[in-house]
Amino acid sequence: MFKLYNTLTRAKDEFAPIAAPAVGLYTCGPTVYNFAHIGNLRTYVFEDVLRRALARFGFKVKHVMNITDVGHLTSDADTGEDKMELGARREGKTAWDIARFYTEAFTADCRRLNVLAPDVVCKATDHIPEMIALVRRLEEKGVTYRLADGIYFDTSKFPAYGAMARLDIDGLEAGARVEMVEGKRNPTDFALWKFSPKDKQRQMEWDAPWGRGFPGWHIECSAMSMKHLGEQIDIHCGAVDHIAVHHTNEIAQSEAATGKSPWVRWWVHGEFLVLDKGKMAKSGGGFITLDAVIKKGFDPLAYRYFLLQAHYRSQLMFSWEGLEAAANGYRNLRETVLGLKEQLPVASSQLPVGKPATDNCQLTTGNYGERFDDAVADDLNMPRALGTLWEALKDGGLSAAAKLALVAHAEPVLGLGLDRVEAEKPAEVPADVAELAERRAAARKSKDFAAADVLRKELAAKGYEVEDRPGGKWLVKRK
RNA sequence: GGCGGCAUAGCCAAGCGGUAAGGCAAGGGUUUGCAAAACCCUCAUACCCCGGUUCGAAUCCGGGUGCCGCCUCCA
């Protein structure tokens, strides 16, 4: 039984899709006006784990993710500038170039984190006709109105507005310090279509029945998810910051257009990665990219391991010390797996990925495979799943083969690259370093340890460390 | 001001009424010419504080205190 927390019900409900085993999964993708930071990436890793878990439990997932390349303003209050145009000006390129560049950067980050590519990646700018059609549909339902700067959704025409977010509309109005667009009937109303400004030329604009302009930010997710997944979908993901505005508006426009409810059966939201002095944001300090993590010498998968150690619905505090600890744990995990592989005959040392642990080793793997799956099935409790794996790996009652079978069972869900762990290759070292190491080995062989130690120091001076291995072998590593 | 969440060892973290998973760090030991690795062992009478419910509470309830998030650009 796969239980998944649903923001709609605020409870862990047993997951059941509309047409099992098929599952339609829509995840809110990036706005490609800048690099993703590691907080952004936390959300995509969580969604990846969800997708892998669904596969584990026998579901056939169709995963759709959007790329927001137009219409996302610097303020959700329908004011401010389009982030894409802003990025273009900042970098002296076209908005289209900016979109292409950051989409590629994002895709590369995901690949490095072992995040599976969605089945469909769709760009907002490729779906302008679909968005216009959806706005027309809303118009026919009489829930829109026109202002000087665009077409707006009248949230008072949708009685269930804000239900998922449990918004206190009156409280919102009372505490509103949002600058409001002139003429909005309700503070919560939002733009469906914005007109191009009269005084300047936009790089991205299209003709629509109401006038030349560009789509509001929210409409893209409704239009694209309907196109690729139908008018009702099983799961829609994003991070918690989207609950109050973006997803609330998506629900309003989608359900108002189709008359079908619920539009989304499971809303699943990931929590933020936070810094000791607050959340990670693209503005201000603390904008850490995956590149920065790699430049500090960390394996991107060590960051993935770091994320997996916390539950996706808990805020996770990022610190370099914490990442260091995770990297150590991840390295130990890989070395444990490597050690197990070395204990097996060559032929069977290939990790049979995806093969259930119960296949041949039912009697010997204990119930670890089951416990691992139970943890995953309990609202993606990856910290517990990881704990179970560690417990199994340290269980003296299990054979190396059984442990490897468990690793193979866990890897398709974890995505930590444990299926391609290989012995550390001797580092490429300069000839003089190799020669020193050879001479030291010879000195050791003839028990001239004083000479050996001198040579060790010489190697250290050149920045290399030598480790002796069984059988007279050694390994030279960069310090 | 309104809404929501969280407080568990040096650090991260699970726990969802039945007597504290796991990882990192630390300490001890075995082994090794040295070093590293490996292996073994140790590491919360205790879960922010005060009350209450219960045979029994880290877990439920009430009241504090402290952090954090959203409502404003965020994933």
Characterise the protein shown here.
- The chain has 3 domains: 3-270, HUPs (Rossmann fold, 3-Layer(aba) Sandwich); 290-420, Four Helix Bundle (Hemerythrin (Met), subunit A) (Up-down Bundle); 431-478, no CATH class.
- A 5-stranded parallel beta sheet has the order 5-4-3-10-11, with helices on both faces.
- It has 16 helices and 16 strands.
- The protein has helices at residues 38-56, 83-91, 95-112, 128-140, 169-175, 219-229, 243-258, 290-295, 300-308, 320-343, 358-361, 368-377, 382-393, 400-414, 431-445, 449-461; strands at 3-6, 11-14, 22-27, 60-67, 120-123, 144-147, 150-153, 190-195, 213-215, 233-239, 264-270, 273-275, 278-279, 316-317, 464-469, 473-478.
- Residues 353-363 have low confidence and may be disordered.
- The structure holds one RNA strand of 75 nucleotides.
List its salient traits.
479 residues, alpha/beta, Rossmann fold, Four Helix Bundle (Hemerythrin (Met), subunit A), 3 domains, 4-stranded antiparallel sheet, RNA-binding
